Amino acid sequence: MSRKIGMWLYSNGGGDVIGEQIISKLKERNIEVYNDINLRYAKVENGHILCNETIVDELDLLFSYNAGQQTQYQIFLYQAINRIIPTINSFEAFQLTEDKFQTAFLLQQHGIPTADFKLCHRNDKHHLKAFIKQWDKMVYKPTDGWGGIGLTKIDNEATLDIIMPFLDQMNIRFFYVEKFIDYDNTDYRIDIVDGEFVGCYGRRARNGSWKTNITSGGEVFLREPNERVVELALKASKVCGTDIAGVDIVYDRTKEDYIVLEVNGIPAFATPEQEELGLDFNNKKIDLIVNMIDEKTRKDR
Fold first, then answer.
1. 10 Å Cβ neighbour count for 16?
2. Number of H helices, E strands in the chain
3. Average per-residue pLDDT in the chain?
4. Which domains does the chain have, with CATH numbers?
5. Residue 165: what pLDDT?
6. 102-153 pLDDT, tens per residue?
7. What 3-state class would DSSP assign to 108?
8. Closest CA to 66 of 16, 118, 138
9. 3-state secondary structure of 206
10. Helical (H) or strand (E) element with 202
11. Could you report the per-residue pLDDT of 210-225, keeping only the tens digit for each?
12. Residue 120's beta-bridge partner residues?
């Protein structure tokens, strides 16, 4: 009897081709893939979660890999499925890495350097003014944002006074801010799969910006990692419990050390354009993911 897994992988940016390669390699190992298990279209009845006429909770594993399209309904079902069958990433790791505060807090508890951060209740706005006086510059971050969306640089108290009314209108429960890092507007993106280093590339903010995220206008460039950034990425991924992670690291010129800026649970594969640039880690990443699925479904059985 063959093993059966569900998969939901993004299709843009060459993701459809990546998905086909993963399915083909799993088929060689007698692992059948039920593709496009988008929980947005799932329903629950008679104790089972059904999606595309597939009983998801009777599969051997669910591989969910689609960033930026997770509704509360999908997350709710993801959590339920995770209690029954293995998921990649686990729901716990997915939930953790979706939250910038929870991730930074856990990393610091394990001695991994991050940006200095503070959190306060929405009714205690006076703390924010104390923070800006202490730090000079800081960045407001939605704890569950991605791709640089919502990040706001606060240069002084006057800027803080301007944006406060807008934050009030958003009905935010709490405020999470980080000290603005003195860096060269570039970062390292380190890909990790199953505790192994996969690849590295750099991202550079466009002129006049400080955001390196591609969706915010940043550009990818070839960059060789050093031992320190790979070590930090491996530790961060392990602490967060991720099977797959993309760890963003920058060099803090004030602290004179590398710091982990973010741990992403769904880091993108290199796009065809990026492969032409020279990013060549896709095949290794695919093989490691296929090996991990093979092993996890064997252990479960």
1. 11
2. 9, 16
3. 90
4. 3-89+288-300 (3.40.50.20), 116-179 (3.30.1490.20), 183-279 (3.30.470.20)
5. 77
6. 999 999 999 999 999 998 887 777 788 888 888 888 888 776 655 445 678 8
7. helix
8. 16
9. coil
10. strand 196-204
11. 888 877 778 999 999 9
12. 175
Of 61, 68, 118, the C-alpha closest to 264 is: 68
State both tokens at 118.
Answer: 């503070």
Q: By three-state DSSP, how is residue 17 classified? A: helix
Give the tens place of pLDDT for each residue, 14-23.
Answer: 999 999 999 9
177: β partners: 118, 140
pTM for the structure as a whole: 0.91
* DSSP string computed for 48-104: EEEETTEEGGGSSEEEEE-TT---HHHHHHHHHHHTTS-EES-HHHHHHHT-HHHHH
- 170, burial (CB in 10 Å: exposed 0-12, middle 13-18, buried 19+): exposed
Its sign, for the CA torsion 29, 31, 34, 40, is negative
* Cα dihedral 199, 143, 13, 184 in deg (nearest 10): -50
Number of residues that make up the chain? 301
| Contact in structure between 13 and 268 (CB atoms under 8 Å) | yes
DSSP state of 216: G
Q: Which two tokens stand for residue 86?
A: 């293995």
| Encoded tokens for 277 | 């640039």
212: tokens are 């390196």
For the residues 256-278, what does the mean pLDDT come to?
95
Element (H, E) at 299: helix 282-300
Contacts of 253 (CB under 8 A, 6+ apart): 182, 183, 184
Q: How far apart are CA 233 and CA 239, in angstroms?
A: 10
**Per-residue pLDDT at 68:** 62
User: Which string of b and e fits 106-123 if b means at least 16 CB within 10 Å?
Assistant: bbeeeebbbbbbbebeee
